[in-house]
Amino acid sequence: MANLYKQQMSNFKVEGNIVDITNRNIFFGEVEVEDGKITAITKIAEAKDEIPFILPGFIDSHVHIESSMLIPSEFARLAVTHGTVATISDPHEIANVCGMAGVEFMIENGNTVPFKFNFGAPSCVPATIFETAGAELNPDDVRALLERPEIKYLSEMMNFPGVLHQDEEVLRKIASAHELGKPVDGHAPGLRGDAVQQYIDAGISTDHECFTAEEALDKLQRGMKILIREGSAAKNFEALIDLLNDWPEMMMFCSDDKHPDSLVESHINALCSRAVAKGIDLFNVLQAACINPILHYKLDVGALRVGDAADFILAEDLVNFKIRQTYINGILLAENRQVQGNWVKHFNDQEAVNQFGCSFKTESDFTFPFTGQDEILAIEALDGQLITNKLSAKPKVFNDQIVSDVENDILKMVVVNRYHDAPIAIAFVKNFGLKRGAIASSVAHDSHNIIAVGVNDQSICEAVNLIIKEKGGVVALDGIKEEVLALPVAGLMSNHNGYQVAECYTAIDKFAKDLGSTLQAPFMTLSFMALLVIPRLKLSDKGLFDGDEFRLLVY
Q1: Residue 411's pLDDT is what?
Q2: Which end of the chain is more exposed for a tag (fewer CB within 10 A), N or C?
Q3: What pTM does this model have?
Q4: How many structural domains is the chain composed of?
């Protein structure tokens, strides 16, 4: 489908220090643009001081737009101010809620703006058989998506056990991508040696889930491309960045999941700045940020060459990467951190898609009977990581019920099926640090049921019911005050202005920390406590899940 955004393209010239990434050269020159294309690049002199630098726009090589809590058009409004011109976008989150209709919504909304979204076909909907999602995409559905020109790749194959055990449906999805000449993204946290070789041999070409440099190097040496990820919760920049000096053509930058307040502050430009500050070769950094995604995914995104689309940026320097201007198809979309023109249209509330079928809960629904056990299993949340640890803890008992142990930070956590009424899954979690109240969210990867953690059943129940009332959102409360950010689009995204959403999210994030949480991103961390495909211990709406053994636990 052609981009629906229309604007008169002008012919113009831009002067500055031109950054030729391919030839690893910088010179003062002129870029000439006609009808959205670069028609000439002329060298005038050697590079000059105090002149803007002209370089290709940045590309986020793996992101779930939904995790910004913004619809695609609003994500674009924020991203272009940081020099981002394109994303490799996995609509996996909304697909788990609304199926094909959700993917269609993302494509259609993305098409209303000039930003270059490149969507994938979600490979794992639902992500596992151990949770309840709102939809299913079978191999025929996946192939139908892959046949569409705007679908550029098969999204992350999280079911790595299915690959290793040669699950027929998994292999059919991968085969469809290969037959149609589209790459397959990977998701293989901790997979090493012969197992990762088998995964790569299945035709899976990338991974963004490496925890350590040793793991990433193992995969790089086997021919897999590695993404350096720095999102709102999951971060591996520090662990992996030194590899970029030796593997510049095999690495890319991504955010994966980025909340709106974080997106207001920076995007891929911040990774470039941090990498340069660490002494990584400038051209290697820009190769990863601007060029490698174009080559790997065969994108229609300009790389600052004659004949390319005029997708480029003007930066004040190549140290801080403060962006002066962002052009896409020759149109100036942002200047000095301000969007230019009215290219983001008002969202029609009637266009929202969603699925919410559960009824309001009562406090008694959240009780956990004490049966005499000396120990309980607890999930240890790790700040800045998706992976968790498995702990044993002494239960705190009151009135024959196991309750939150605020003093020892072992809090009750629940997952409530949002699609229909069902028994509530209950477990215990460490490191959220709440001293009062509760926080809850309908953003709970990957099936996006309601997840909540709190100091008592009353607070948890109130938080869950606020989510149900809004048909999606994030909530923090303490019995006196409550903060709610409604997410009416699939229970994942707001339909409001991105800057307003970021402001609201900043307030609710601060309130969660005022309640006692010491996590950098409490809601982002909470959203991953139900992500079963990341070890070690997680909670789905069906119960406690062992990610190492890939099975539900009898608890």
Answers
A1: 98
A2: N
A3: 0.93
A4: 2
Of 271, 301, 331, the domain-final residue: 301
Could you report the per-residue pLDDT of 449-494, keeping only the tens digit for each? 999 999 999 999 999 999 999 999 999 999 999 999 999 999 999 9
- How many CB atoms within 10 Å of residue 359? 8
Residue ranges with strand state E in 198-241:
206-207, 225-229
Which H helix or E strand runs over 13?
strand 12-20
Mean pLDDT of 318-329: 97
Cβ neighbours, 10 Å, residue 177: 25
CB-based contacts of 310, cutoff 8 Å, min separation 6: 31, 33, 36, 37, 38, 302, 327, 328, 329, 330
CA dist., res. 417 & res. 431, Å (int): 24
Where in the sequence is the domain holding 495, given as residue range(s)?
363-552
Domain-ending residue, one of 301, 316, 341: 301
Residues 555 and 552: their CA atoms lie apart, in Å, by 9
Q: Is the dihedral of CA 122, 123, 127, 132 positive or negative?
A: positive
Instruction: Kindly report whether the peptide bond that precedes residue 548 is cis, defined as omega within 30 degrees of 0.
Output: no
At 8 the pLDDT is 52
Claim to verify: residue 150 and residue 245 sit in the same structural domain: yes
Q: Please indicate, yes or no, whether residues 151 and 244 belong to a single structural domain of this protein.
A: yes
Query: DSSP string covering 388-432, please?
Result: -EEEEEPPEEETTEEE-BTTTTEEEEEEE-SSS--PPEEEEEES-
For the purposes of burial, counting CB atoms within 10 Å of the CB of 55, is it exposed (0-12), middle (13-18) or buried (19 or more)? buried
Q: Do residue 376 and residue 446 come from a single domain?
A: yes
**pLDDT score recorded for residue 554:** 73
- Written in H, E and C, the secondary structure of 20-41 is ECCCCEEEEEEEEEECCEEEEE
CA gyration radius for the chain? Answer: 23
**Rounded (10°) angle between helices 193-201 and 213-221:** 50
- Do both 367 and 296 map to the same domain? no
**Domain presence at residue 430:** yes
Q: How many CA atoms lie within 13 A of 190 on its CB side?
A: 11
